Amino acid sequence: MRTPMSVLRLPRGPDPNSRGFDPDSPRFIALCSTTISSSTDTETDSVQIGEEQCARSMLRESFLRTLIAMTNKQVQFYMYERVKVNAVFVASDIDVLNFQVSDLQTPIGVQKEALLRCQDVILYSFDL
Amino acid sequence: MFLLKGVLSIQAQSTLSNTFNLQFVFCTETKVSMAMRQTPLTCSGHTRPVVDLAFSGITPYGYFLISACKDGKPMLRQGDTGDWIGTFLGHKGAVWGATLNKEATKAATAAADFTAKVWDAVSGDEVLTLAHKHIVKSVNFTQDSSCLLTGGNDKTIRIYDINKPEAEPQEITGHTSAIKKALWCNNDTQILSAADDKTVRLWDRTSTAVVKQLSFDMSVSSMEYIPDGEVLVITYGKTIAFYNALSLDLIKTVDAPASIHSASLHPDKDFFVAGGDDFKLYKYDYSTKEELESYKGHFGPVHCVRFSPDGELYASGSEDGTLRLWQTEVGKTYGLWKCVLPGEFALFHIEH
């Protein structure tokens, strides 16, 4: 009668709230300097990386503020295959992969609630 | 083998001038039997069948495993524990092939959305999208990660320079059916491809001409290339076949009890494992071709199986949506497996 091999624990499964790649892991800290490939190519020094980071945080903050400003407004989405739709923007998911919209005007009718895949959107515009 | 009597508490001074408090918990006089039963580790997370998996080389941070899944979300895991590290998000269709470069810094995936993508395997970010004209089935990096080989349903093998992605890829045509797998071989100077046209072809990279061709009575289900020793492992029907990768001369074939979808040869070439339609994993002795063990566990056909780079475990991916990790030597303490001796004996050591 063979004894089953003991296991310390089960393998950890995916985190339902994030896509992983923990930035605090030793591997990430050691191997990820900046995420702009041009910086790593030209071997920018720490001052330039600092400036780059400032610019990036400013841009990110502006982007997030536009998402807030867009809430409950009519937005025109220009998408691939010459698709242009109007909808009321409700929210974005954390990774900006999907936009939740209401009253999406489509050629086959108005969709009360819908999710737009951000990858399919080329540009969107709205009036402030 | 251990023989112990009574309860002992020892305080010992080690050479590193740390005092250890050794406590033997629950000792009995017992002779240890080394026959342990395999306990596979199940990695959950995918919601559809797992169709391909690949290990990286051994890096300073261990080794890694990538799994391709029909749910479109390939995952990166720590190779020795199966712990999830991250999910590569971006594909819009089933992912048919996935690979990691040796250093596990880059990943590549092949999908039904007609693209192959290259990813940063540390941050999870998408680095490149390479558009194709049909479903992409296979991706493979060169040793220096500078070029990516792709193959798929448009029957064309393509070579992309990752540093110049806008440049047109080099194309190699000839297959008359969808390509299942395309692999670099012979120090990245040649390419091996297996297609639904029931052939395996060896191509010269520079001339793009066929060097040699193998024909079969049925479609090849999988192909694995072992650079060290130049061995090619091919599966078709119930057969696992081993070829010399340079000459395509047959070394040996082994028949399994059921239709085999994938097989992998141990780095030391003493064992190989195979899995297929009957949901089981089979372990064979490579020299004697003897079936050593078979393991039940998956709830669906096994689509892919690969040995880890250190040969200590092998991973299988199944129609049931899970990956399972299996010990090569059952009973050894490795990764999450811990050898706990019968009689519930455990040794603790507390460092002061």
UniProtKB/TrEMBL annotation, chain A:
Assigned GO CC terms: SMN-Sm protein complex
UniProt-listed Gene3D superfamilies: 2.30.30.100
InterPro entries referenced in this protein's UniProt entry, alphabetically: SMN_gemin7, SUZ-C
A Pfam family that the UniProt record links to this protein: Gemin7
PROSITE patterns: SUZ_C
BP GO terms, sorted: spliceosomal snRNP assembly
Sequence ranges assigned to domain SUZ-C in this UniProt record: 1-25
Chain segments carrying region Disordered: 1-23
Any coiled-coil regions, as ranges: none
CDD domains linked: Gemin7 (cd11677)
Protein name as annotated: Gem-associated protein 7
Organism: Esox lucius (Northern pike)
Lineage: Eukaryota, Metazoa, Chordata, Craniata, Vertebrata
TrEMBL record, chain B:
Record carries keyword Repeat: yes
Pfam families, per the entry: WD40
Superkingdom: Eukaryota
PROSITE patterns, sorted: WD_REPEATS_2, WD_REPEATS_REGION
GO molecular function, one term: RNA binding
Keywords from the named record: mRNA processing, mRNA splicing, Repeat, WD repeat
One term under GO cellular component: SMN complex
GO BP of this protein: negative regulation of transforming growth factor beta receptor signaling pathway; spliceosomal snRNP assembly
InterPro entries linked: WD40/YVTN_repeat-like_dom_sf, WD40_PAC1, WD40_repeat_dom_sf, WD40_rpt
Placement of WD repeats on the sequence: 88-129, 129-170, 172-213, 295-336
Keyword hit for Oxidoreductase: no
Protein family according to the UniProt entry: Belongs to the WD repeat STRAP family.
This protein's name: Serine-threonine kinase receptor-associated protein
Organism listed in the record: Esox lucius (Northern pike)
High-level lineage: Eukaryota, Metazoa, Chordata, Craniata, Vertebrata
Gene name per UniProt: STRAP
